Amino acid sequence: MSAPLLELEKATIRFGGLTAVSELSLSIGENELIGLIGPNGAGKTTAFNMITGVYRPTSGHIRLAGKDTLGIKPNKLAAAGIARTFQNIRLFGSLSVLDNIRVAARLHNGEGYFSALWRGKGWKKSEAETEKNALELLEIFDLANQRDELATSLPYGDQRRLEIVRALATKPKLLLLDEPAAGMNPSEKDDLMRLIRFVQERYQLSVLLVEHDMKVVMGICQRIAVLEYGIKIAEGTPKEIQCHPKVIEAYLGAAAV
Amino acid sequence: MPLSGAKRWLLLGIAIAILASYFTPHFNRYYLGIVIDVGIAIILATSLNLINGHTGQFSLGHAGFMAVGGYFSAWLTLSAGATANSLWFFPLVLIAGGLLSAFVGLCVGIPSLRLRGDYLAIVTLGFGEIIRVVAQNTEAVGAASGLKGIPKLTTLGWTFGFAAITIYAITALVNSTYGRGFIAVHDDEIAAESNGVNTTRTKVTAFVTGAFFAGIAGGLWAHHKQFLSPTGFDWIKSIEIVVMVILGGMGRTVGVIAAAIILTVLPEFLRDFSEYRMIIYALLIIVLMLLRPAGLFSFNFKRRSQS
After folding, report:
1. How far off is chain B from A162, nearest CA to CA, in Å?
2. DSSP per-residue letters across B49-68
3. What is the pLDDT of residues A105-114, one digit of tens each?
4. Could you give the 3-state DSSP secondary structure of residue A212?
5. What whole-number distance in Å separates Cα of residue B84 and Cα of residue A33?
């Protein structure tokens, strides 16, 4: 078997005396949709930050397609194919919807400082192409009509969607979604589930999903890993996780088992 | 495209500047002097706007870069002797001053732009003071008594020609997919980085570009005033430029140009009340900041939603 797309091997991170994530091992294959759940403060977002290079693991390894990512900066990892969204939406607030996508498309349009200054033929062509691609992407996700609106003036659900579209514009192999359903109502959550499935199938990428909403996680993930206090306590299919005694204990307390 | 035919505007601006400079002998010299001051202020404010406005870094070192460019180009002119009178000598000297300033910007920027927010302000403030103290103690550039007898090479044409180039360059950069990176860094560094923007490099690029144009402004200034004194480049000068950027509305080119014009002309109008001049100046800034906190020219088209 070839190396998995992403592999965490005993990844550990400590902040002073606190071990936020302890010896987390997890592997994500191509085209897999994996959920990462756990109670508040279990270290899910910290795990995300390690994978995307924001934090450097204290020990252990993280490999992307077999290559160690230790010490590689987030922007380089984005170029290597890891894209993410954020728990608290982080759009570029003073840029339009279209420009938010253009920022992410910078990775692939090859434009440089002097070509932007000179504005020659090649620049015009690449600029037109970038805009066309960005618009196509917005069209697919039904955001093209709002192209010129400020990103932060969109309704909440659209902002979440735009963040996912922006991540897709970097042409990732692995998409990390950090609580995409947070703050959504049930019908928005259904839309989101469809959206995630659609994205994964259409762009043939792997998704790692951090989510509190069990309906969403159980509904779409092929495999689920459960974290508690930084330690992985269970991993398996949604069915296995649902009746796993350790998981029930973590969420409901020992008496519920 | 918001800026199609931008190069045509640039050429038009330069043409007007050259044309206007043919009539300068007929102008009142006092007013001409102020108009050139305005042009230099436009270059300074527009270039600082790239760093402090568009990219959202807080630099307080613009006077320092101005000093580097000013002293270097003045020194070149003084060393050149008679060749200084040929037409193309002056712009080359200005560009040389700008390049040295950009290089210094690179040396200061690489270590300090890893820092965030307030730290950068302190580092650049310190840098400005270092430049001033170095100038004050270097005999070759007149030390504390200043550099005298610089030929008057700055004309209306050169000043506004370079102002047009500065405005064009900053606007062209920011209004490209490449340049959207500056604004992305301003809005959210973490999101920018996770979308593939090299934030440190973007910040250094903005800083070096700003320093380049500040160096050119310094050269124009030197050959306009014909006298350079280290005290002219202290931190108050940097603050003046920062005020122009804030008053004009961070990241809004038109507003920043307007603020540069107003804040350069205003003190001249207030000369009659010389004793109260600085008080009125300060009060005006406070009032403007209270009435238009997002800058002189912030209209609804860029209003952010309440969150």
Report:
1. 13
2. IIIIIIS------HHHHHHH
3. 998 887 889 9
4. coil
5. 70
Measured at the CA of B236, the angle between CA B232 and CA B239, to 5 degrees, comes to 130
CATH code assigned at A24: 3.40.50.300
Longest dimension (CA), chain A: 70
What domain count does chain A have?
1
Q: Is residue A73 part of a domain?
A: yes
Task: Determine the structural domain holding residue A62 and report its residue range.
Answer: 6-95+172-256
Contact B181 A103 (CB under 8 A): yes
Tell me which residue of B238, B273, B254 sits closest to B130, measured CA to CA: B238
The answer to whether position A188 is within a domain reads yes
- Print the domain residue range for B73: 6-234
Q: Residue A125 falls within a domain, yes or no?
A: no
pLDDT in tens, B75-103: 999 988 777 777 788 999 999 999 999 99
The CA dihedral of A190, A192, A194, A200, to the nearest 10 degrees, is -150
Cβ-based neighbours of B300, under 8 Å, separated by 6 or more: none
Q: What is the pTM of this model?
A: 0.90
Q: How far apart are the first and last CA of chain B?
A: 30
C-alpha triplet B280, B221, B61: angle, nearest 5°: 70
Domain contains B110: yes
Helix (H, G, I), strand (E, B) or coil at A27: strand
Any B CB within 8 A of A30 CB: no
**List of chain B residues whose C-beta atoms are within 8 Å of the C-beta of residue A117:** 169, 172-173
Is A103's CB within 8 Å of B184's CB? Answer: yes
Provide the number of structural domains found in chain B: 1
CA of A128: which chain B residue's CA is closest?
A: B1
Among B103, B24, B72, B42, smallest CA distance to B233 is for B72
